[in-house]
Backbone:
């Protein structure tokens, strides 16, 4: 089943079908069930891929951004996420996540067999803008408080040659559920010329 959003290629579920609503024009709401997450434990623990991505396969260079919100009370590690999925060993996610210390923050995870997890900016407001960009074989993650000035999170490659899906995800590793909303969704084939100058 395809989900249509204005200005974005048709969206479909990757891994399995999840729960999605469109509560208002241009707004996407995804609900994660208890235990839904992606993690390839760097210390060798069991992989977790219970979360599911609502996304599309971009044909070339692009940027995808959204204003990410988690609705309701939060639990540890819950998140509204922009993500990339190649296969179970090659994926990445940019999260508006709730830390064990009770702080909302931008967190990124890049997985080439094992997950490289990195905490970034603390978020003092109730939402944050997230952006994924692909340029050639490389990827970039950014966040923004206002959707205009972008803070560099990381650049990376995935050791994966096949087509990768990009899109939206909610996770609730320890909570009963997580409701993630994505507003102001913007897809463009124009990409920043400089990933570190705020553009």
Residues:
């Amino acid at each position: 089943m395809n989900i249509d959003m204005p200005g974005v290629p048709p969206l479909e579920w990757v891994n399995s079908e999840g729960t999605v609503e469109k509560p208002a024009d241009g707004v996407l709401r995804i609900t994660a069930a208890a235990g839904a997450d992606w993690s390839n434990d760097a210390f060798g623990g069991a992989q977790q891929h219970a979360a599911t991505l609502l996304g599309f396969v971009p044909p070339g260079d692009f940027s995808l951004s959204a204003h990410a919100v988690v609705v309701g009370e939060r639990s540890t590690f819950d998140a509204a996420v922009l993500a990339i999925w190649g296969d179970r060993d090659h994926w990445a996610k940019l999260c508006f996540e709730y830390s064990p210390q009770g702080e909302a923050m931008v967190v990124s995870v890049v997985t080439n067999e094992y997950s490289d997890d990195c905490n970034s900016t603390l978020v003092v407001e109730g939402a944050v803008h997230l952006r994924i960009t692909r340029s050639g074989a490389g990827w970039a993650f950014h966040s923004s408080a206002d959707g205009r000035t972008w803070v560099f999170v990381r650049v990376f490659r995935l050791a994966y040659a096949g087509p990768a899906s990009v899109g939206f995800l909610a996770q609730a590793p320890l909570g009963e559920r997580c409701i993630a909303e994505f507003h102001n969704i913007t897809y463009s084939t124009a990409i920043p010329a400089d990933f570190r100058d705020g553009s």
User: Anything to note?
Assistant: The longest strand covers residues 177-188. The chain has one domain: 3-59+69-128+162-184.
